[in-house]
């Protein structure tokens, strides 16, 4: 690959890193053509961008993107496929469901919500991270809960008082 081509690839990777908030480093080297095609299809459905790139070019792109990504250096060995996503846990869920029985793709590392996760043992932790939409839903549910309790207490209390008054009136 020519030096000019490499610089173009690095610039494209820098742009992609800037476009997405999270990325996962995976190993899909032993996946056959059918499996790779199925993985790409699933990634597309879940708005995950799957890119296979040389480790040295990815390191250069991370250096140019700004920030300290040196924690990912141990994972940048061998074949690496990168899953870019704006949803924090979508790639982790995809990896977990897709790798049942085969262990491919295998998680090498992840950069999620400005934190580093190195090693496949972090997959379950990454799956449990809530997305922005899930967190907003939880907050709304928490805010609605006291109001629902007050309304239901007022409704049930009114029926109780009405029952007591009716009983007293009958006596």
Number-wise, the strands total 5
SS class: alpha+beta
In what range is the share of β-strand residues? 15-25%
Q: Provide the CATH topology of the largest domain.
A: Alpha-Beta Plaits
Based on the structure given, which CATH architecture of the largest domain is correct? 2-Layer Sandwich
CATH homologous superfamily of the largest domain? Ribosomal protein L10, N-terminal RNA-binding domain
What does this structure look like?
There is one protein chain. With 171 residues, this protein is an alpha+beta fold. It has two domains: 3-129, Ribosomal protein L10, N-terminal RNA-binding domain (Alpha-Beta Plaits), CATH 3.30.70.1730; 131-171. 56% of the residues lie in helices and 15% in strands. The protein contains six helices and five strands; from the N terminus they run αβαβαβαββαα. It has helices at residues 3-19, 33-45, 55-65, 90-98, 123-128, 132-170, and strands spanning 22-27, 49-52, 81-85, 106-112, 115-118. A five-stranded antiparallel beta sheet has the order 2-3-1-4-5, with helices on one face. The chain starts with a helix and ends with a helix. The model has no long low-confidence stretch (mean pLDDT 87).
